[in-house]
Amino acid sequence: MRYRTNLSFTLLGFLALCVSTSGCGAMLNSELEDVSIIARPADARITIDSIFHADGFFRSKLKRGSTHIIEVSKEGYRTSRIQTGNNVSAWFFANLWAPWSILGMPVDILTGSAFTIKPNPIIVELSPGSGPPIIEKNYLDGYAQAIAPVAILIGLEVWFIYSLTKGYH
Q: In terms of pTM, does the model score above 0.90?
């Protein structure tokens, strides 16, 4: 009985420590990233996700973990559409230093803090003429890049916790 009580308090303390220090990316990256958009000619219109923002140059905070459509247009030039993508942030892998990364990694993935927006900065040079929009798709599947190590770590951590507790029944 005494072993079971000590084990319960130990696991409860371990869980509290895990939750309180999880999510390195969420603590250091935040959910938003500064993205610069530079358009040439300088008076070209910049819209992000169908909302007009500026002419020529714009710096914005965009949500990580989401794709965004940036459209640059000017009369007499072909419109350019860029779809942003996500790469896994280096801070996401900082979760690996601790045995409770099983909690930190999902926190980072769910908040979007595990990712960085690509391309950044976005530089667009419009071509004179008319015609359909020029579409650039820079979508990198950051979720697939992030979930693979999480699945491996979940398996390792479940095995580790099981091996620690199998003697206490």
A: no
